Amino acid sequence: MSTEQPIIVVKIGGAAGVDTQAACADAALCLQEGHRLVLVHGGSAEASALGEALGHPPRFVTSPSGFTSRYTDERTLEVFSMAVNGGINTSLVSQLRRLGVNALGLSGLDGGLARAGRKAAIRVVENGKQKRLHGDFTGKIGAVDAGLLRLLLGAGYTPVIAPLAAGKDGEALNTDADRMAAMVAAALGAESLLLLTAAPGLLRDFPDESSLIPRLHRDQLDEALQLAEGRMKKKVLGAAEALEGGVRRVIIGDGRIANPIRTALDGAGTMIEAGH
Amino acid sequence: MSTEQPIIVVKIGGAAGVDTQAACADAALCLQEGHRLVLVHGGSAEASALGEALGHPPRFVTSPSGFTSRYTDERTLEVFSMAVNGGINTSLVSQLRRLGVNALGLSGLDGGLARAGRKAAIRVVENGKQKRLHGDFTGKIGAVDAGLLRLLLGAGYTPVIAPLAAGKDGEALNTDADRMAAMVAAALGAESLLLLTAAPGLLRDFPDESSLIPRLHRDQLDEALQLAEGRMKKKVLGAAEALEGGVRRVIIGDGRIANPIRTALDGAGTMIEAGH
Question: Residue A4: is its pLDDT beyond 80?
Fold first, then answer.
């Protein structure tokens, strides 16, 4: 019976302030209620901390259109992979298993789950000047193999996905976890994509939490992209990609509270629907 | 057709001197020839190096019966997991994917693949004195879920397994990779278990490489255990466990050479057979 349930993709953790333990506990309850879940996580803060500890601090760059990302040279990719895949992913799988969830960790590299393109050079703005950087191991996901996820879901596993993607030559690439969650949701035809964050949702006037936007139509996403601060821009982009890919609704929900998943599914946060 | 081929489990890398690149290239060729492979890896040296770099150097302890192991407190387990699961496993999966292998990385924690028991305290010998150590996150694997591996093999994936196991409460445990490979081979009813090492095989007179023992019967394993040096003891124990579990033959083969897998399967190294 449970295999007939719609799928919910949840981007869990990553940002400071998101309560991973509460999210895991709520995921376990959702599964008991019969939902099918796929979890995607970040790990940016942990990767930065590990890089600092190993004498290879992160370098963040800003694109001409205002998006911030981690410049990922080969050593940064190794550090990112250790922190995200060996650190966060293993810790989440362990936490979930303690709660009785049959969690199985993967990254987008495994089985070619998430294929990404990689730019030969990226354009960045530093001190007001544009320049080009080479050797960046970052990828934008072009396709997710729903077959592997369906195979695992069908066998009763709950996939927990780390934000690495497979480049076209098999190399591992750093990828954005929010947009990965969006592509996973689209590939699975998920009913809902839930992006947990350290805020009540999308704010009209950041950081004023009383300015929460409770509901958006997909036509308003361009406007929302202008309002969004920093990392929230990626969530808005992810929301657009998920709706474009056929996901019925995207919720940007508060990840700092108890029961963050069910609270968001019940209507808190910012709900973005494809509409009719 | 290829799903009808017997399964070969290969313990790849881990020890200094084992040529991982050659093993990956040879694995790719074996797969092209129609073999089905499951790879298990170690990562002890990398975990130690990461621990040193992070100010948490490894502590090795010796049991009263002469086995050496890494004392794994909670922080050591985190470091081990980052190095082995996020570092080596991701790197092997990437190398294999570059070679056209549909590799998929897992640890024994994922999906509860390898269940292990954990001792409340371990007995160790230090400066000639026995003492007990608590809080050790090390486990001896009791059961491997062949179902998950068969699911993945059947769908065309080549599993690459990191030496973490699932404790009974869902916690991750450090586990020995040679013995994990043995338990995986037994659970799958593998035709062959191949343990690659930085020597031509089991030596009668370590480190004299001309003293290679080319063939052993399982009845001689107790005697071999006395001859074996250091880490080789675990391989001999693994060999015994694999044969006990129904594996037809175990080969301890040279991992420093080109084509290490096919060379061992062709009869080099130390072959240990169940016999009739």
Answer: no
Q: What is the pLDDT of residues B200-232, one digit of tens each?
A: 999 999 889 999 999 999 899 998 888 888 778
- Please calculate the CA angle B259-B187-B67 and round it to the nearest 5 degrees: 75
How close B54 gets to chain A, by Cα (Å)?
6
- Which position has the higher pLDDT, B107 or B225? B107
- The number of C-beta contacts closer than 8 angstroms across A and B is 126
Q: Is residue B18 part of a domain?
A: yes
Domain count, chain B: 1
pLDDT single digits (tens) B42-63: 998 999 999 999 999 999 999 9
Instruction: Please report the ipTM that was assigned to this predicted complex.
Output: 0.94
How far is the alpha carbon of A32 from chain B, nearest alpha carbon, in Å? 17
Q: Are B149 and B159 in contact (CB under 8 A)?
A: yes
Q: How far is A256 from chain B (nearest CA, A)?
A: 24
A chain contacts of residue B152, beta-carbon cutoff 8 Å? 111
Overall pTM > 0.90? yes
Of B94, B106, B166, the CB nearest to A97: B166
A82, A112, A170 ranked by CB distance to B86: nearest: A82
pLDDT at B1 over 50: no
> Residue for token digits 């963050």?
A260
Place of tokens 């990562």: B43
For the beta carbon of residue B221, count every other beta carbon within 10 angstroms: 18
Query: Would B249 be classed as within a structural domain?
Result: yes
d(CA A30, CA A115): 29
Reference B146, options B117, B108, B172; nearest CA is B108
Using a CB-CB distance cutoff of 8 angstroms, which residues of chain B are in contact with residue A102? 111-112
Q: How far apart are the first and last CA of chain B?
A: 29
Domain residues for the domain of A129 are: 2-273
pLDDT at B14: 63
Report chain A residues whose CB lies below 8 A from the CB of B78.
87, 91
Of A102, A111, A166, the CB nearest to B157: A111
User: What integer is the mean pLDDT of A89-101?
Assistant: 97
In-domain check, residue B127 = no
Q: Specify the CATH number for the domain of residue B27.
A: 3.40.1160.10
B100: number of Cβ within 10 Å: 11
d(CA A153, CA A189): 14
Q: Which residues of B touch A152 (CB under 8 A)?
A: 111
